[in-house]
Structures are given as structure tokens and as C-alpha cells.
Amino acid sequence: MNAIVFDHVSKHYGDVLAVDDLSIAIEPGKTVALLGPNGAGKSTSVNLLLGLLKPSRGTVAVHGRTPDEAVKAGEMGAMLQNGALIPELSVKELIDLVRRLYPRPLDLRQILELADLTDLAGRRANKLSGGQAQRVRFALAVAGAPRILLLDEPTSAMDVESRLRFWASMHDYAAGGRTVLFATHYLEEADEHSDRVIVIARGRLAADGTAAEIKAGAGDHTVSFLIGEQPSAGLDRLPGVSAVEVADGTVTLRTADSDATLAGLYRGTTLDVRELRLSGADLEAAFLALTKES
Ligand SMILES: Nc1ncnc2c1ncn2[C@@H]1O[C@H](COP(=O)(O)OP(=O)(O)OP(=O)(O)O)[C@@H](O)[C@H]1O
């Protein structure tokens, strides 16, 4: 059975159509990035999954149940944007309070270790930095040992080192066969930390696959090299090439098939090619292409 299913889900806020006929199915044990620009419908989708919002049309299912049932059964943990912490309690007290609400929580020490909070256990919640508070929100999200973990832009307040630590914690948690869905507009996070990327734009599904598949779909590889004073005529006829740029003695070829382009370059021309560079399509190019129109 799928961990998460959206079946033709739409969500209106008055006149605003935030989620538009979205259908997705996520298998258990996967780490999935929900990627989209501002206003794409990511938070709305997360809130629909948690039962905090109801779809205007369609259905959302979590392990075959309604979101409300899944939340009651302690199957879901969530880290939402700017969730408030109780300022008077220490980190340890707060986590313990929340873990006791669940039928089969993780033990306190394990949660503190997982969220890298052991050294901050006695600190009051109102004395934490933004990044530390995010780690507490992560601890609260995993406290009940949920099978599904939802993270809405989890690293937004974190510096580079905190991000690295955070993703290490997330991978530790996911390693037990748990399902993780995280919303982000950081392309590199989706690329590095997910098994699958679901791109949404204007509430609709724009792409769904591994980061590698989505990049390959963009078909935007480049081959560049120094050409110096040699003539560049005819390079546009090499296999796969869609565009040729020449600037300051350097040629850049855009190609849908860099292997065929290289074979053509070496076998079909007599150019003296120096400082050859290849670059794959990046997720950013794919993302911009996927989210720009319609
Ligand atoms: N409570 C609300 N009332 C009216 N419109 C809303 C409400 N919440 C969100 N919207 C609108 O719904 C659309 C989707 O918003 P949502 O917050 O789901 O996007 P998002 O992808 O999470 O964006 P961001 O990356 O900026 O957090 C946007 O056009 C937004 O303005």
C-alpha cells in the first residue's frame, strides 16, 4: 500500500486555486522532495496531508486512511514553518512532553541524539538561536516515531553547517524505512537529499522523477572548448547541437546528446580542441524550464 496518495486533489482559498487536480502516489520508505517556487502550493499540500486543510475536490490518503485517522494513530510527524515552541520549558522538558502524547514514542535520549540536541537539553526554548529552534522542531516531529515525516522548508533558518547536520539527522531517521516528504525551493537540497523529486508549479504537477531523470529531461548539456583563431563554421551541424556560442576564443555548444557531439567533433572535424569541458544539465535549468510557463 502507498504511504501517501493524492487523488485528483484541488484546494481553493476563495478565488485562489492553490492546488489544482494534483495526483501523486508515494511508496513507503522513500524520501521525496516537493519542489516548487513561492506560491506553488507546497505548504497547502503539506497541510492537506496533515488534515489541517480539507480538499475542495479529490481525496488524500495516508496508508489507506484519512489524514485525520493517520494523525490520531500517531503515524505522522510534521515540522511546519515557524511552529511555536513553549518558551518556559527546557528543550528536554518540551520534547518529553510531546513524546508522551504518542503511543510508541522514541526514547528521550535517542531523540536528543538524533536532533543533535544533547548539549542543549537543559536550555530554555526562548534562549535558542533560529537554527537551534529548528532542530527542536525536528525533534518534536520525530518524537512519536512516526512512519511518515513531513518537513515544510525545514532548513530555512539554518546556516550551512546546521543544514549539513540537519540532513544527516533526516537521513538517519529515514534509514529505518520511514517515508519523508520535504517541501523546499532549494534545488540543491532536492537534488542531494531525495530519492524522488515532485515539482509543482501553480498547484499542478510539473514533473515527477529522480533528480537525474528531471535533469535529463531538460536536455541541456554543454560542451565547451578553446578554439582560438580556428574557424567555427559548421559546428552547428554536429550531432545533437542546438546552439553555438563563440566568445573570446571559447566555443560553447548546447547539445541534447553530448556523446554524439563529441564523436562528431573528433571524427568529423580537424579542429585542434583544447581545454574541453562537459557539463550536464543542472536541476536549476530543468526547474526553470518546467515552472516558467502555463
Ligand atoms: N490562507 C490562505 N488564504 C488565501 N490564499 C492562500 C492562503 N494560503 C495560501 N494561499 C495562496 O495559495 C497559493 C499556494 O500557497 P502555498 O503557501 O501553498 O505555496 P508554497 O508553495 O508553500 O509557497 P512558499 O514557497 O512561498 O512557502 C499561493 O497563491 C498563496 O498566496
Automatic annotation (TrEMBL):
GO molecular function term, any single one: ATP binding
Pfam families linked: ABC_tran
Domain ABC transporter as annotated: residue spans: 4-227
Membrane topology: Peripheral membrane protein
Keyword Cytoplasm on entry: no
SUPFAM superfamilies documented for this protein: P-loop containing nucleoside triphosphate hydrolases
CDD domains: ABC_DR_subfamily_A
Gene3D superfamilies, A to Z: P-loop containing nucleotide triphosphate hydrolases
The keyword ATP-binding is annotated on this UniProt entry: yes
Keywords carried by this UniProt record: Antibiotic resistance, ATP-binding, Nucleotide-binding, Transport
Location of this chain's protein in the cell: Cell membrane
Main location group: membrane
Protein name as catalogued: ABC transporter ATP-binding protein
